[in-house]
Amino acid sequence: MSSTTNPSTHHTSTIGAIGAPSRRNTELALLVFAVVIPVFAYVNVGLAVNDQVPSGLLGYGLGLGLLAAVGHLVVRKFAPYADPLLLPVATLLNGLGLVLIWRLDQSPRLQQRAESLFGSFSPDAPKQLLYSALGIALFVAVVMLLKDHRILQRYTYISMVAAIVLLLLPLVPGLGANVNGAKIWISIGGFSIQPGEFAKIIIAVFFSGYLMVKRDALALASRRFMGLYLPRGRDLGPILTLWAVSLLILIFENDLGTSLLFFGMFVIMLYVATERTSWIVIGLLMSAGGAVVVSTFASQVKVRVTAWLDPFGCYETSGACEQIGQSIMSFGSGGVLGTGLGQGNSDLIGFAANSDFIFATVGEELGLAGVMAFLLLYALIIERGIRTALAARDPFGKLFATGLSGAFALQIFVVAGGVMGLIPLTGMTMPFLASGGSSVIANWALVGILLRISDTARRPAPAPASNPDAEMTQVVRP
Amino acid sequence: MSELTLTVMRLGFLAVLWLFVIVAVQVIRSDLFGTRVTQRGSRRESGRPQAAARQQAAPPQQRQQASGGGRQRRGAPTKLVVSEGILEGTTVALQGQTITLGRAHDSTIVLDDDYASSRHARIYPDRDGQWIVEDLGSTNGTYLDRSRLTTPTPIPLGAPIRIGKTVIELRK
């Protein structure tokens, strides 16, 4: 809007958005920060545990820095308008996760425990660094190869089948591995993979493709009953199917976390797609009902519920109760400011101290202040995901970004709630933080997809073609 | 390692962690309010040093008041009413913003009228709060009362402005 003919507008100003900021330099600055913080933590742990600066400092710092640099350059080249926060926050969490795993590797208690159980102790931190590299590689592949997230829309039903197959794989005899009661791993050639972590992303494709087509029917065809819009019976089909599938996962794989994640994600996406509160009410009722029924039948789940209700009642008798009890004591002894990195006793948790229970180490060594900072970092990733969904212009992208960030949020809630004793422990892992290849690789892919959607959403629209309306204006002939 | 060093490192680490969170939130803030203020006509006025100097000398608050001050004036119009045409009965509150009229989809009032141009006219307050109508080079012209507009013209209260088949007027 120019004011070429009007002298009276000289003193008015226009307030407009800054023309197409790419924010890549902001991202670079934050990335440098996100690499320096874990290096600081690494030095801190080394000084506290061994009284010296750790010898691997240079290699570790360079490794993390290199991974971050590769990620940044690929984003700069292939997704220049992507969100500036996702990559640095994910890098920071991954780096701090590596430090925490390395810190627990230094614990003599855990070393002795591993030697007495398996005969030898192998540190987890180098493996985790390798997995992080693989995760960044997958992130790079997603950003480079997925030019447009809407391509995924074509594979709506294929991805449903793929996700169900992935979820059922651990039940295949010979392929599935039963680790501590939960059958959520498969082992191929010495590597154990948790297919559920990948299924999380793939099923989000199905949900968003399906809901995009069906959301009008689900939203509009309903009856009003007691202030709630109840859906028609046949529209309940998909949610009932999903409920049944997640209950089957729960019963046959003994995995509370995955089933909660899938059902919760579907309910979140249904709600977002239809704006009907009734779906949330129905979803909560169904999951509560399912949980009660299953917890009375499935032994593994029952043990966990008992451990949740009264961890110190069965502390002496049950391993699950002892773990939860130790975890709660870790959080308690951390206080507000924590004991300092490398100076806590969270290794008393023993089994899974560096995977499922890694958040207890944060709680003990960094205290409430550290826990809050970590939760805020996760919240930032989720916020950027939802922000991406708001900015996305296509309904598929909106639902996809919502689903991915919803799943991420649910996972954080389920894991953090589990180790703090808010809800029964589920055996999921803290994204980016916990030791475990599948989790870190799948979550890097998730961040890659969110970056791709945000690049599409934040990319400035192409300049509009010259308006043909002007030529079509009819001339009044007097 | 001495107790003191470790305590300093412990608190320092927490401080750095929180600093990252705060910086990240700052980035979000600048994303939300990433706006810049452009002075209209400043490019054109660069050839006229006196005018440019006067504009720079005026403090920003004063400019703010000047642009928004019109609506507090007594007897100033508060709404724009479409009194004839397809959009008859439509009203737009006048709050110091520029109102564009035309067939273009981004106009404030989109005229579905073959005799209107895509960017036909605009109505805006000048710095004294007086509302001005300006023809934007339309094909069939904009009429205030019976006369065709050639320059931006102040709009008297209740005077009909005709654009194609549409007539609008300003009311209190």
Automatic annotation (TrEMBL), chain A:
Name the record gives this protein: FtsW/RodA/SpoVE family cell cycle protein
Matching PANTHER family: CELL CYCLE PROTEIN, PEPTIDOGLYCAN GLYCOSYLTRANSFERASE RODA
The organism's taxonomic lineage, starting at the top: Bacteria, Bacillati, Actinomycetota, Actinomycetes, Kitasatosporales
Compartments where found: Membrane
Region described as Disordered: 458-478
UniProt keyword terms in alphabetical order: Cell shape, Membrane, Transmembrane, Transmembrane helix
Membrane topology: Multi-pass membrane protein
Coiled-coil stretches: none
Membrane-crossing segments per the record: 28-49, 55-73, 85-104, 129-146, 155-172, 184-213, 234-252, 258-274, 279-298, 357-378, 399-423, 429-451
Top-rank lineage group of the source organism: Bacteria
Automatic annotation (TrEMBL), chain B:
Record domain FHA: where: 99-149
Comp. bias (Low complexity): 48-66
Stretch list, region Disordered: 38-76
PROSITE patterns: FHA_DOMAIN
Gene3D superfamilies with a match to the protein in the record: 2.60.200.20
This protein's record includes keyword Phosphoprotein: yes
SUPFAM superfamilies recorded: SMAD/FHA domain
Name of protein: FHA domain-containing protein
Originating organism: Streptomyces ureilyticus
